[in-house]
């Protein structure tokens, strides 16, 4: 699981500013500390209202190796707050 901001401190894009562009089937490569790579395929990109966030679906145990990328979404210019979370669900690609 990786959490990142959609916007950077002081303005500008954050590390997950383009996360919303991912779609099912896209590939994500995570480079491990030892230099090896883990490759994941995006299963779903979902938006959840912050007051209805499905904690177990996002943070719960999975049957196999999975990745979750999480950031804020649903910016409301009237309040200056993000009302949603964007979650990318991805599964490890074997072989």
Automatic annotation (TrEMBL):
Pfam families from the UniProt entry: Sortase
Keyword line: Hydrolase
Presence of the UniProt keyword Calcium in the record: no
Matching CDD domains: Sortase_F
InterPro entries associated with the record: Sortase, Sortase_dom-sf, Sortase_F
Protein name per UniProt: Class F sortase
Organism: Kocuria aegyptia
